[in-house]
Amino acid sequence: MYLYLPVALTSINIFLPVGLGLIVGMLSGLFGVGGGFLMTPLLIMLGIPSTVAAATDSNQIVAASTSGTYAHWKVGNVDFKMGIYLLIGGFSGGLIGVEAMKVLRAMGNADFVIKITYVLMLGIVGTYMFLESLSSMRKKKSEEVKGEKESKISAFLKSLPLQTHFEKSGITHSVLVPIFLGAVVGILAAIMGVGGGFVMVPIMFYVLKMPMHVIVGTSLFQILFTCIEVTFLQSYTNHTVDFTLAVLLLLGSTIGAQIGAVFGRKLKGEQLKVLLAIIVLAVTVKIIFELTLTPSLLLSQAGGH
Amino acid sequence: MRYFISTNRVLIIFGLLTLLLLPVSMDDAFAEITANAKHDHITINSFYHGTTVTISGFSNPRDADLIIKLTSPDGLQSLRKKGKVASFLWMNTGELKIENVPNVYFLYSTRKIEDILSREEMDKYVIGYPALVKHATINVSAGEEKTKWFNEFIKFKESSKLFDTSVGKISTTKKDRKQDYSILTEWPYQAPPGNYTAAVYAVKDKKVIETAAVNVFVEQVGLVKSFADMAKNNAALYGLISIGVALGAGFGVGMVFRKSGGAH
Question: ipTM of the predicted structure?
Answer without folding.
Answer: 0.82
